[in-house]
Design brief:
Elements: H1 7-29, H2 31-34, E1 41-45, E2 53-57, H3 59-82, H4 84-88, H5 94-112, H6 116-134, H7 141-172, H8 177-183, H9 189-207, H10 215-222, H11 225-251, H12 256-278, H13 283-310, H14 314-349, H15 360-363, H16 365-378, H17 385-402, H18 409-439, H19 446-449, H20 456-474, H21 476-490, H22 498-501, H23 503-528, H24 552-555, H25 557-562, H26 564-567, E3 569-577, E4 584-593, H27 596-617, H28 624-641
Helix pairs in contact: 1-3, 3-5, 3-11, 3-14, 3-20, 3-21, 5-6, 5-11, 6-7, 7-9, 7-10, 8-11, 9-11, 10-13, 11-13, 11-14, 12-13, 12-18, 13-14, 13-17, 13-18, 14-16, 14-17, 14-20, 14-21, 16-18, 16-20, 17-18, 20-21
């Protein structure tokens, strides 16, 4: 592969990688500097805080900056190789790189913002430039529709965020987050709850909570794979970061139903997300719905933390917060890696349909290795970090349950634990399908037969992400020190000491690795002994063909049957018999999954809005007499109420 591009593009890519390296070193070096401190560094542009743009770096910001540095650096390296296919087709890369770096800059701006105006400005920039990236392959009509759905949904959220920002400004006369926090005690409970709901809808839309999640599978399937890796691995986490910055730190503990809302919505998001992921045949849509599932798990952790805070259960709150930050880091590593592997498969086969893959592990072994490590992590299998994150979520929920004396909480908390266990099982089934259908067995199409391993620049970033994920469990103390930074801020300066309290359980993962190595060594030793005989798979004397393998649809059919009501699954079977009903000539099967949220909620809502717009349009009939009557009525109303 010949890598083309202007000197400017090469300079930008080098700058991105340098920033990633600096960020990694800078983040680790600031751990001892900021540990135990609530205050960080503040920068103000203008006359004064609250009336100007202000930026702040503290422990909470630093943790997410650390994630952004790693995610953007490796995604940029991957994009450098991935986009060469577009350049070979004559598509300009200039627009992509401009939007890419402005998107990165806006995410940095959101994380650093310390006032409402800077937050809204950078938030809108992040939404706008990510829309341009999703729209990059605009020649395809489906991609244009997906980008517009994303743009509409993200601006629905922005409406709520703008409204609450202007309300707080009107109440305080300042955009400063600190001034807002000081003014919260003067608000009524109704005002406080409405502000929370506005934040929940505005930020939850970007994060991908139900029922605001519908943009996510469309946008991720339409966007180039580097964009999907960055949006899923980093951008949705920034929305979750703002729940801490704007709700936890500014609004305070609040009512206990805030935590229950996070817990219920998070649980539903996790279950629905993984259910929909399990029945998809689109390679990237599986990963997109899995992102909704993992955002749901993070929502459960948030709910557990908010409830523990309102119930003054310090141990459960610490566990929930630690679980949130640990799982946030792990999901960024694994999901970014999997989107990169998906991009490699798509470029090698020129299709996203799982039914057309198979046998790719033979021709794409390095891509397959990265995908396998990512799947072990994303399905929360030990010893990788996904297991330890979900284990801490379980522990926090159980600690909250033990802290309750009676009431419905004693019922719903264990139910949430069971729900999380169900999600784990479904996740394993989903990614067994994703990996097995793609990489194992025989090639199901000529596209899979012609596939070849991609250039090293496209599989090395995912392997680096996998390596970082392995290091986090081999040496968890450093990561726990990093997690201690945001926890110190959220506990208002009180040091938690996670390295001592959680480092010992997590260090057990090193023993898991040793046991795993010993088992693998034993298996290899015993399998090398004796004579080998390599032969074709026995198929009752008939030659084995790809059509005899499990399909992606067939592998998850039990899930579709068991959850048919929730999924709205329908099947259509057409049989062509010969002379009798016992002699079948051919059979045609088609299965469909109903778009439940779109059919039940969004399409009726859109029809209602269109009807309302049509009624309002009748007010403008083009008659000068009608317009004069409007003016007369307006003058009368103004004179009446202006007295």
């Amino acid at each position: 592969m010949v890598y083309k591009g202007s000197q400017f593009v090469r300079w930008l890519m080098s700058l991105s990688l340098i920033l990633a390296g600096i960020g990694l070193v800078w983040g680790i070096s600031l751990i001892p500097m900021l540990s135990g401190q609530n205050a960080g560094f503040r920068f103000v542009m203008g006359e004064g805080a609250g009336q100007s743009l202000s930026w702040k770096v503290d422990g909470l910001t630093l943790f997410f900056l650390f994630i952004l540095f790693i995610g953007q650096g490796l995604a940029s390296l991957y994009a450098f190789g991935y986009l060469q296919e577009y350049a070979a087709k004559g598509k300009s890369l200039g627009f992509f790189y401009v939007a890419w770096f402005l998107f990165l800059g806006s995410m940095y701006g959101v994380l650093l913002a310390d006032d409402g105006f800077a937050f809204l400005l950078t938030w809108e920039m992040m939404s706008l430039f990510s829309f341009f990236l999703v729209l990059y392959e605009h020649e395809d009509r489906q991609n244009r529709n997906a980008a517009y759905i994303y743009l509409v949904m993200t601006h629905v959220g922005t409406v709520f965020l703008t409204a609450v920002t202007l309300f707080l400004y009107a109440k305080t006369g300042s955009f400063s987050f600190e001034v807002w926090a000081n003014a919260i005690p003067s608000l009524t409970s109704i005002q406080l709850n409405l502000i929370f709901l506005a934040f929940f809808i505005g930020l939850g839309t970007k994060a991908g909570f139900l029922p605001f999640h519908i943009w996510l599978p469309y946008a991720h399937s339409a966007a180039p794979s580097p964009v999907s890796a960055l949006m899923s691995g980093v951008m949705v986490k920034i929305a979750l970061y703002l729940f801490f910055r704007l709700v936890w730190l500014i609004l305070g503990p609040g009512a206990s139903w805030w935590g229950w809302l996070f817990l219920i919505v998070g649980g539903l998001s996790a279950v629905v997300g993984i259910l929909l992921a399990s029945v998809q045949s689109d390679l990237k849509k599986v990963l997109a719905f899995s992102t909704i599932e993992n955002v749901g798990i993070l929502g459960i952790a948030l709910g557990s933390a908010f409830l523990a805070r309102s119930w003054h259960n310090q141990a459960a709150m610490d566990l929930a917060l630690a679980a949130f930050f640990w799982h946030t880091l792990q999901h960024m590593l694994f999901k970014s890696s999997l989107f990169m592997e998906a991009g490699n498969i798509i470029q090698a086969t020129h299709t996203r349909n799982l039914e057309r893959f198979g046998g790719l592990l033979k021709v794409m072994p390095k891509t397959g290795l990265g995908a396998l490590i990512g799947i072990v992590g994303i399905t929360a299998l030990p010893p990788l970090g996904g297991f330890w994150g979900e284990l801490m979520v379980f522990q926090s929920l159980w600690s909250n349950t033990l802290g309750l004396s009676d009431g419905w909480g004693k019922v719903f908390m264990p139910l949430t634990i069971g729900l999380l266990a169900l999600v784990g099982g479904l996740s394993l089934a989903t990614f067994v399908k994703w990996f097995g259908i793609s990489f194992l067995g025989q090639a199901r199409s000529q596209d899979a037969e012609r596939a070849r391993e991609v250039h090293a620049v496209q599989y090395v970033p995912s392997l680096i992400l996998s390596g970082i994920a392995v290091l986090t469990v081999l040496s968890p103390a450093t990561i726990l020190d990093l997690i201690n930074l945001p926890l110190t801020v959220l506990r208002l300066g009180e040091t938690i000491g996670l390295s001592s309290s959680l480092g010992k359980p997590l260090s057990i993962s090193s023993a898991y690795f040793l046991i795993l190595i010993l088992l693998l060594g034993g298996v290899m030793l015993f399998t090398q002994r004796g004579a080998k005989r390599v032969t074709a798979t026995w198929n009752c004397g008939s030659p084995l063909t790809p059509s005899m393998q499990y399909t992606a649809t067939g592998l998850t059919k039990p899930i579709r049957i068991l959850f048919s009501k929730a999924l709205g699954s329908k099947r259509y079977v057409v049989r062509d018999f010969a002379e009798s009903r016992y002699s079948l000539r051919s059979l045609n099967y088609e299965g469909r999954i109903k778009e439940v949220f779109e059919d039940i909620f969004y399409r009726p809502l859109i029809r209602g809005l269109l009807w309302l717009a049509a009624q309002i349009r009748k007010l403008q009939e083009g008659s000068i007499h009608l317009y004069l009557s409007y003016l007369l009525i307006t003058v009368v109303i103004v004179l009446f109420f202006g007295r």
